[in-house]
Amino acid sequence: MSMIFLGDVASPSKSISAELGRIISKTEVFNGKWIICNFEGLAFSEPPVQRNEPLLFNHSSVLNSLDNGGGAVLGFANNHVLDYPLQFQKTVEMSRAQGFLTCGAGMSREDAEQPAVFHSSGQKIVLFNACWDFLLYNHRNPRKGVYVAEIDEIKLIQKVKSLKEKEPDTRIVIYLHWSLDLEILPFPLYRQFSRDLIKAGAGLVLGSHSHCVQGGERFGDGYAIYGLGNFLLPDNVYAGGNLSFPEMSKTELAVEWNPVNNELSCHWFDYIRIKDGHILEYSGSEKYEESSKLEKYSPFRNMSDQTYVAYYRKHRRKKLLIPIYADYRKVFRNKIYTIVLKARARTAHFLASIKLVKWQN
49, 173, 230, 342: which could form a disulfide with 127 (CB 3.0–4.6 Å)? Predict the structure, then answer.
């Protein structure tokens, strides 16, 4: 049985959850397969009062919508799990009552770093879920006892290598919440890191948070898909109706991976905002090797690290006061870069709170 990986899911109401349920139940590619997603906000039976801030949550009805009979894994390693930390344990309870697995956050650092373990087509799957520490700039980690797993590149590579040496038949997936929102290109560091994760034994590396598709490439027998985009994160609902995304965010990618034959497929969806609601439409599927659409998002394929740094410097979407993360092994330098980025992000947050700029997520 294959697995389907979705990007960000944040469904704030029963009606929006119903649209998610419709597309999953009516689209054949989902039938009976594991669904893994970035669960962008904790679940409430009675949603919290909205404030003029990008605080995200899910209505509990979304759990039924994600349940297609094949099993599901909810990744909690994202910045919005800390928006309402007192709802964390209740969300875990509701998810597990549905038969879902959860990973990426916990009531201790050790729990947060535990992978999800399940079986698909007789294969043992181990899925690690972690978040770039910069994205937690607006909250302390932990917050009110809830920890979010943070990306430690060197440590994670070692975990993958050690697991693969002990269990060579186990298939390893890495699902990371990283990048800058609305950045169309992956950091150079992400290509290097993904390649080394795959060399260590990972079969698939995936990313979320960019809110747009970022493309992907193959390294040996492993795949890296740097940004899945939103799957369902509706416009003009959160932050008092002020959070929305540009047209490039309306194309959503769901990736299907068969761990037995190592075949990867791309399933494409469109998000459409209409006057009275929100629509998801299935627009077609392609095998990875034949995906002309994914190739357009992946101009960096076959570039050397050095060539890509120059390409990224010229073609990235966000440049102002944003350093270039080029090498995950430069730990101290990257920490300095993150300090700079956090100062920039907090300034942008303040300007958005007084309505001088738009909210970003």
Answer: 173
Amino acid, res. 11: S
Distance, CA of 53 to CA of 337 (rounded, Å): 26
pLDDT at residue 321 in the model: 87
What predicted TM-score, i.e. pTM, was given to this entire model? Answer: 0.96
Residue corresponding to tokens 């966000």: 318
Q: Where are the beta strands (DSSP E) in 92-221?
A: 101-103, 105-106, 116-120, 123-131, 147-148, 171-177, 204-208, 213-219
> What is the C-alpha to C-alpha distance for residues 205 and 222, in angstroms, rounded to an integer?
8
DSSP-derived secondary structure for 257-272: EETTTTEEEEEEEEEE
Mean pLDDT of 157-172: 98
Contact 154, 329 (CB under 8 A): yes
Q: Which residues pair with 147 in a beta bridge?
A: 106
Closest CA to 101 of 79, 77, 75, 124: 75
Task: Write down all domains in the chain, each with its CATH number in brackets.
Answer: 3-353 (3.60.21)
Q: Using one digit for the tens of pLDDT, what is the confidence trace for 12-37? A: 999 999 999 999 999 999 999 999 99
Q: Are 232 and 10 in contact (CB under 8 A)?
A: yes
- Amino acid at position 275, single letter: K
Q: Are 303 and 215 in contact (CB under 8 A)?
A: no
pLDDT at 356: 67
Determine the Cα angle at 286 with ends 246 and 182, to 5°.
Answer: 20
Q: Give the pLDDT mean for 262-285.
A: 95
| Pairing mode of beta strands 3-9, 251-258 | antiparallel
Tokens of 241: 């109706």
Share of the chain above pLDDT 70, in %: 99
